[in-house]
Specification:
The complex is a heterodimer of chains A (about 300) and B (about 170). Chain A has about 300 residues and is an alpha+beta fold. In chain A, about 35% of the residues lie in helices and about 25% in strands. Chain B is globular. Classes of the chains: A alpha+beta (about 300), B mainly alpha (about 170).
């Protein structure tokens, strides 16, 4: 028996590892998107390792970009100057509106909005497989990032912080199948639920089939649901299907953000205060099981 | 020494794989560098170290960017096992074998991923996309294998036991 074990020790090791992997898979089945203690530890130590290893490559890429690839720089400079002038005018108007808004809120004794100081974070890893749409960012709780904070880019909503460690944080993208956002169609104010459909598309669910919806309509977050503040651009409607037998419309929404090209993202606080119970796990559970029943 | 060197190579490939896509100038299927590294380990000696490295690489991938813990770890350990046993039947230093093995096992890894995704209720809709990407992914991984396999063999030659010690050469007769 001992000789047999010795002879097949390698085979037994591989079988044990595969079984361990399957055990991890099965134990994560009912938990939704989850990262255990070991996973958090790996995330935590990966961020400094990544920045150390990629530093020389980043410098070379920076040098090439800054000094060698200067084609069209003059034209780009002119375009940016023009944009800058337009934005400065817009900013003056916005500042005036902010002051007016603040004054009116004070007059009405209305709740002042929470501090929305953004945190800029670099993307250090991204999922290459279609079934998971996550990003790893190089900033964590040390920099003020906490679970359920919202990730945005200048183009729109990116996702939310699913796991935060001291040095890094994992962002669950809006296209992930476990991601669920309460959304509203900007033109008609019709509300529905945005859910990740495939690597490049989301679906807008539970929209009554009598709703007036057209291709090209913009979809924004409604502010309900516990995480995302209202008014963040989610995407644009690209397909509307009215099945005669269905209660709801079949709607595809193309995300406003090109996730594959994101290099930096902005983290802002979510609508849930950090003292309140965590809702993301509920969302993950809701997305996996209840959504199917509802559909 | 060799263990450290292989681990460092794996780490480099992991960082490259994770930051690769953001720096490419066009929409491109990125190569799965750590999977190719695991395949190369399957052709080198020390099966215990290789199996543990394969599992660890998958587990790290799961922790960093995966949403289902254990998915990549299971796939990498299984693929390593297949490579280890198929490598015995062929000439492991042949470039043709490297390319064929990379193509076949990338496809096997995608099939295994699709099968495992069936158990996740939220991910079953993604299976079609996993399979749709298969042809491109196989091609890209084959190209990466042409580069990574020789590097791993060279590292093994530099740090592993001398060939003269392993074979009974005519000079020793």
């Amino acid at each position: 028996m001992r000789g047999l074990l010795k002879h097949y020790k390698y085979l037994l090791l591989v079988i044990a590892l595969v079984l361990l992997g399957l055990h991890l898979v099965s134990s994560s089945l009912n938990k939704g998107v989850n990262t255990g203690k070991t996973g958090r530890f790996i995330m935590n130590i990966y961020a400094p390792v990544h920045s150390t290893i990629s530093w020389p490559f980043a410098k070379v890429a920076d040098f090439i970009g800054r000094y060698l690839l200067l084609v069209d720089l003059d034209e780009e400079n002119r375009k940016l100057s023009k944009n800058n002038r337009a934005l400065r005018l817009r900013m003056m108007e916005t500042e005036k509106l902010i002051l007016e808004n603040k004054r009116l809120r004070e007059l009405l004794n209305y709740d002042t909005p929470k501090d929305m100081t953004p945190i800029y974070a670099p993307v250090i890893a991204r999922s290459l497989t279609p079934e998971t749409r996550t990003l790893l960012i190089g900033k964590g709780s040390k920099d003020g990032i906490e679970k359920n904070m919202v990730a945005i880019s200048p183009d729109g909503l990116v996702g939310y912080v699913n796991v935060a460690t001291a040095n890094s944080a994992k962002i669950l993208l809006v296209t992930d199948p476990a991601s669920v956002i309460d959304a509203v169609v900007q033109r008609t104010r019709a509300t529905g639920i945005i859910k990740g459909k495939n690597p490049t598309m989301c679906s807008l669910n539970f929209l009554n089939r009598t709703e007036d919806l057209e291709v090209g309509d913009m979809v924004v977050s409604s502010g309900l649901g516990g995480i995302f503040p209202p008014g963040l651009t989610v995407g644009q409607v690209v397909r509307v299907e009215r099945e005669t037998t269905d209660m709801f419309l079949n709607v595809d929404v193309f995300p406003a953000v090109a996730f594959d090209k994101l290099e930096d993202i902005i983290i802002i606080p979510g609508v849930v205060s950090h003292d309140e119970p965590d809702v993301s796990d509920d969302i993950a559970d809701y997305s996996s099981d209840d959504m199917e029943i509802l559909e | 020494m060799q263990t450290l060197l292989f681990a460092f190579t794996g780490l480099l490939l992991l960082v490259a794989e994770n930051s690769w896509k953001a720096h490419l100038p066009f929409d491109f299927t990125a190569p799965q560098l750590t999977l190719i590294w695991v395949l190369a380990l399957g052709l080198l000696d020390n099966p215990v170290r290789g199996a543990l490295f394969a599992f660890a690489a998958g587990f790290v991938m799961d922790s960093l960017v995966g949403a289902q813990p254990g998915l990549n770890a299971t796939i990498y350990a299984t693929i390593y096992f297949i490579m280890k046993f198929s490598g015995k039947a062929f000439f492991p230093r042949s470039l043709v074998f490297h390319v064929i093995a990379a193509a076949f096992l990338t496809f096997a890894a995608l099939m295994l991923r699709s099968s495992l995704l069936f158990v996740f209720p939220s991910c079953d809709a993604m299976i079609g996309h996993v399979l749709a990407e298969a042809p491109t992914q196989v091609l890209v991984n084959c190209a990466a294998a042409i580069v990574i396999f020789p590097i791993m063999f060279r590292l093994d030659d530099l740090t592993g036991p001398k060939r003269e010690d392993m074979f009974y050469l005519p000079s020793n007769w």
